[in-house]
């Protein structure tokens, strides 16, 4: 499939709730940029397709499911280990791009290869520093005064893909910084989509000499 450069990329939005997932999606919708579908992790013993529930889930403003329900967007749930189901769903939707923020799992090469433009990810650090699944914890633990949010292309290894945009900001208490980074990340995504549409988006390789990785805190 060849993307029509006069139109914005068709995309699926992936996240798991909380400010860093919810605020960028809300900002996209407020700007008039609507995903083809929303994809969220599936809790144990939860129906795979959340749209098949007999009643709507309880309202939760910090829930991607609530936003998707309000907007009438297809909502797909993903249980870890069932990549074949998600691969089939994505091939049916045939997006140009997948955009994710705060999704907890690595993405396989088969899934990464489905959209022509690949996958983009919002990561709450100034990559290549603080790669890994919980970067804000480690930045607060280290007493960093400055943090930021990075938009990057997704590769099979966590947080190693070329950068599409990055913004710095002061590091404050955890909940305040999540909201601020989510707002900045939303702007990064919107601007990157617009540059992609104009054919001016440039990806910059990360400097491996500056890279660091931290796993889940114990």
Helix content: 25-40%
Radius of gyration: 17 Å
* Percent of residues in β-strands: 15-25%
Give the overall average pLDDT: 89
Return the domain count.
1
CATH architecture: 3-Layer(aba) Sandwich
In the CATH hierarchy, what is the superfamily? Formyl transferase, N-terminal domain
- Stated plainly, the CATH topology is called Rossmann fold
Helix count from the secondary structure assignment: 6
The unreliable regions are 51-55
Notes on the structure:
- The protein is α/β, with parallel strands linked by helices.
- It has one domain (11-198, 205-210): Rossmann fold, CATH 3.40.50.170.
- It contains six helices and seven strands; from the N terminus they run E-H-E-H-E-H-E-H-E-H-E-E-H.
- The protein has helices at residues 19-30, 64-71, 83-93, 109-112, 135-141, 174-198; strands at residues 11-15, 37-41, 75-78, 97-101, 119-123, 146-153, 163-170.
- A seven-stranded mixed β-sheet has the order 3-2-1-4-5-6-7, sandwiched between helices.
- Helix 2 links the parallel strand 2 and strand 3.
- The longest helix has 25 residues, at 174-198.
- The radius of gyration is 17 Å and the shape is globular.
